C-alpha cells in the first residue's frame, strides 16, 4: 500500500440565513453539509483517507457549534449550545485528508457549498485566505523520558 501525502487545510465557512436558525436546525444543517463533504472528498477517483473534517463556530461568550466527520460511512456528529437563534455565523474548518492536495479540497468544499437543492445552498460560502500546513517542514525529535 502506498503512503498517501497529508496536506492539512484550514478555512472559514461563512453562513448567512434568511431567517434565524435554532440550535437544532443548525446542527442538522451542518451535519448534512459535512456528510456531503465527506462523500465528495472520497468520490474524487484517487486514493484518499479522511483523518477528520471538523468545524467549530465560537458564537460570543458562551455559545458554540461543533461538527466532525471521519468517514462517509459514519454520519457527521454536530452539537450546538446556542442561547438564541442565529442569522449568521463563521465556522473554522480543518480538513485532514490523506491523498488530496489543498487546492482539490478547496474546490470540493466550494462545490458542495454551492450544491443546488440542499438545505445549505445559498447559505454557506468558503472564505479565503486558506491556510495549508506542510507536515514535511516540521521535524520533531521525540525523546522518551
How does this model look, in words?
The chain is an alpha+beta fold and 145 residues long. It is built from two helices and six strands. The chain has helices at residues 23-42, 102-113; strands spanning 9-21, 49-59, 63-69, 77-81, 86-98, 124-132. Strands 4-3-2-5-1-6 form a six-stranded antiparallel β-sheet, covered by helices on one side. Helix 1 (23-42) crosses helix 2 (102-113). The longest helix has 20 residues, at 23-42. It is globular, with a radius of gyration of 16 Å.
Helix and strand topology:
Elements (H helix, E strand, L loop, with lengths): L8 E13 L1 H20 L6 E11 L3 E7 L7 E5 L4 E13 L3 H12 L10 E9 L13
Antiparallel strand pairs: 1-5, 1-6, 2-3, 2-5, 3-4
What distinguishing features does this structure have?
145 residues, alpha+beta, 6-stranded antiparallel sheet, 2 helices, 40% strand, globular, disordered C terminus
- The stretches of 5 or more residues where confidence is low (pLDDT under 50) are 136-145
What helical percentage do the residues reach? 10-25%
Query: How many β-strand runs?
Result: 6
> What general outline do the C-alpha atoms trace?
globular
What amount of the residues lies in strands?
A: 35-45%
Rg, Cα atoms, Å:
16 Å
- pLDDT averaged over residues: 86
- The span between the termini is 33 Å
Adjacency order of strands in the biggest sheet: 4-3-2-5-1-6
**How many DSSP H or I helices?**
2
Q: How do the SSEs run, as a string of H and E?
A: EHEEEEHE
Strand count, sense and closure of the main sheet?
6 strands, antiparallel
Structural class: alpha+beta
